Amino acid sequence: MLTDQWYVDAETLAKPAIEAVRSGDIAVVPETWKKTWFNWLENIQPWCVSRQLWWGHRIPAWFDPSGNVFVAETFEEAQQQAGGGVELRQDEDVLDTWFSSALWPFATLGWPEETHDLKRHYPNDVLISGFDIIFFWDARMAMQGFEFMGERPWKTLYLHGLVRDAKGQKMSKSKGNTVDPLGLIDKYGADALRFTLAAMESQGRDIKLDEKRVEGYRNFATKLWNAARFLQMNGVGASQSIAAPAAELPVNRWIIGEVVETLAKLDTAFDELRFDEMADAIYHFVWGTFCDWYVELVKGAFDQETKAVAAWAFDQILVMLHPFMPFVTEELWNANERSYDLIVAKWPNPQVGLHPQQAELDVAMQHMSEQTGREVHRNLDELNKWFVETTIDVIREIRAARSELSIPWSVTLKPVVVMSEHYDTTLLELLEEDKSVARLAKIAEPSLAESAPPNSVQIVVRGWTIALPLEGVVDFESERGRLTKAVAAAEKERDSLAARLSNPQFAERAKPEAVEKARADHAEKSAEAERYRAALERLG
What we know:
It is built from 21 helices and 16 strands. By secondary structure, it is of the alpha/beta class. The chain folds into four domains: 7-58 and 93-160, no CATH class; 208-354, Isoleucyl-tRNA Synthetase, Domain 1 (Orthogonal Bundle); 362-469, hypothetical protein PF0899 fold, CATH 3.30.2320; 476-539, Helix Hairpins (Orthogonal Bundle), CATH 1.10.287. The strands form six sheets. The protein has a four-stranded mixed beta sheet with strand order 14-13-16-15, covered by helices on one side. A three-stranded parallel beta sheet has the order 2-10-9, covered by helices on one side. Strands 6-5-7 form a three-stranded antiparallel beta sheet, with helices on one face. Helix 7 (134-149) links the parallel strand 9 and strand 10. Helix 10 runs parallel beside helix 12. The N and C termini lie far apart (88 Å). The model is unreliable at 353-374 (pLDDT under 50).
């Protein structure tokens, strides 16, 4: 049965929204979605806005007993149009939900009144939306914004992907692959789920929500919690300054520089709306740089300078991580006495704390008077960074050798620095002076030799060769045999997977998740083969 409906001239409404995106007045990220925007709006049809529902905004139209219709914003205006004393009846239909929703950017700020909030917050900066409602809601918000406010509702439209299951399939009750976010929160915490979605959001690509990723980021939150407790146990409290503390120890100057670099990465990624890159930068800094290395390097050496630097660096971490993990960061922030909550803390400035103490700068300038103070500062920072990162590389390589050759930690290794044509004493001095290498790699006092001793494993760090004598520690023949078999097994599996992936029939007929798993397995076996071969080469 045909019924009368209310329509809006959508073609007229669409024109300003089309021009705004075409001119760049509204930016669309990723830009590939502009095509969809134009396709929808340039082929738009009259919009039926009346709905036969109980709930919603009533159609602003009134009928008199003769069937004449009066459209107005209010009943009083409709009564004036109809004339005094004429009985009016409002249309029983309500506006389409998307029509009402399109008013959101300004209706929530007090419109049609000229409120303080409306003047302050309209237009907004960024709308973050799923791409599946680019027309249903986003484009209609733009249309209504230009129509009622005479201006775009936001400067940038950011379109993210959809959350799918771990295999990339759309979630469906009939498939039984739906994921209850509340269940994940109960199991792993809201912070872990929130960080997972941020880390996997790559500008419009769908998110394959694997529970293992959520579990991994729960472990990340635990890592942060343990680091906070360790610092507290060593007398590290809240930082007393937004600016970086003065520091002389290389490890402290290094972590300050790493904080500055991480902040710069975050700011750049945020400007580009790359939330995945933001999450990646803060994750690797917190877990790898701060927890795995800085905390380990300063363990047992918490003097006043180190306490101040550690407190400052950890405070910067909490501020940087707060948008991603608000609950655990706020809890850790308030574990120390504070004058304000973390949510109102000032976002860190990458330029704060870059300059060394003036006295240090003056001394350096006496030795390098031909350079400017800024050049001196840069050279000092680069030298300091090199020193600490070389220390880390030495520890990492010795640990890797221990792991690959199953050298027990009860054995203290005695490193030998092998002289080369361009040899200098820098590495030997580093090994002698930096006690953290001895502690973290379990080595004794280093020595110097023209060649590697027999039955030793060799590692190369930044051009230097370090030999680790293993006489009586490792059975070389047995170890060579074991590693040779391991290399052969890994390469056999690698090549088998490569052959499967290169087969066109496999790529065409197999399920996408099977192809993806084969690729992941191939990458894993390739890395495994390289690792075993590198260990074999170490034995010579």
